[in-house]
Amino acid sequence: ILNVEQSPQSLHVQEGDSTNFTCSFPSSNFYALHWYRWETAKSPEALFVMTLNGDEKKKGRISATLNTKEGYSYLYIKGSQPEDSATYLCAFPPTGGGGNKLTFGTGTQLKVEL
Amino acid sequence: DTAVSQTPKYLVTQMGNDKSIKCEQNLGHDTMYWYKQDSKKFLKIMFSYNNKELIINETVPNRFSPKSPDKAHLNLHINSLELGDSAVYFCASSQGLLRSEAFFGQGTRLTVV
Predict the structure, then answer these.
(1) Which of A43, A98, A99 shows the shortest C-beta gap to B107?
(2) Quick one: B10 exposed, middle or buried, by C-beta within 10 A (0-12, 13-18, 19+)?
(3) Which 3 state secondary structure label does DSSP give A25?
(4) A102 and B45 in contact by Cβ < 8 A?
(5) Could you say which of A51, A100, A106 has the minimum Cβ distance to residue B55?
(6) B86 contacts chain A (CB < 8 A)
(7) pLDDT tens-place string over residues A31-44
(8) Which residues 45-84 of chain B have a CB within 8 Å of chain A?
């Protein structure tokens, strides 16, 4: 994997469902992995920054795990609510962090329906 | 207080014009960025500045010239605007080498007619 890949591209769930998405990234020279939430017509907002293999982070009903050896992270949303509808982006600083930039995935667009 | 603020929020201009977008952050961060959201809503890095010094210029046409008068400001000047420059441009800032979160401005929607 040369860049960040996210799946699925989009997801429709019912209110109350739990869901998860995947972010795959190059496992060599890992530095950090970011998750952002991006609502329509707004700017991306950080959810988590993860740096250690095995990291698990939680914010309310949203949690994330990190596997740096195999190069993936999962984002989980428990009991989805309509206000969770947004695009979820993962991003990583390539080349061991020395690049001073974030490379973003194309995102997973989540739609939570009543 | 807005952490990262961009002005203007909307910009409509004619082809060939020169325009600027301003960005200011009040977070005390040492690194600022310009990102472009393309037609597929993909965020792509354009420039990265660290302590007023250009770190990354990601194959952006010379018509785009960033200017950082101080650590808190990173402005984007675009010469001879083209139709293809129409996009949403986001300014962002962070502290250090990206082990801390990036904060984004609200975006500037540029429309070239």
Answers:
(1) A43
(2) exposed
(3) coil
(4) yes
(5) A100
(6) no
(7) 899 999 999 989 99
(8) 45, 48, 50, 55-56, 58
Which pair of structure tokens corresponds to residue A81?
């609510």
Count of alpha carbons within 13 angstroms of residue A111, beta-carbon side: 5
Quick one: B76 exposed, middle or buried, by C-beta within 10 A (0-12, 13-18, 19+)? Answer: buried
Query: Helix, strand or coil for residue B48?
Result: strand
Q: Are B66 and B49 in contact (CB under 8 A)?
A: yes
């018509």: which residue's tokens?
B63
Q: Which of B42, B99, B107 sits opposite A51 (nearest CB)?
A: B99
Please state, in angstroms and rounded to a whole number, the distance separating the CA atoms of residues B68 and A52: 33
> Rounded to whole angstroms, how far apart are CA atoms B24 and B7?
9
Amino acid letter at A87?
T
Tens digits of pLDDT across chain B (113 residues) = 679 999 999 999 999 999 999 999 999 999 999 999 987 788 999 998 888 888 877 778 999 999 999 999 999 999 999 999 999 999 999 987 677 899 999 999 999 99
- With an 8 Å Cβ cutoff, the interface of chain A facing chain B consists of 31-32, 34, 42-46, 49, 51, 87, 89, 93, 97-104, 106-107
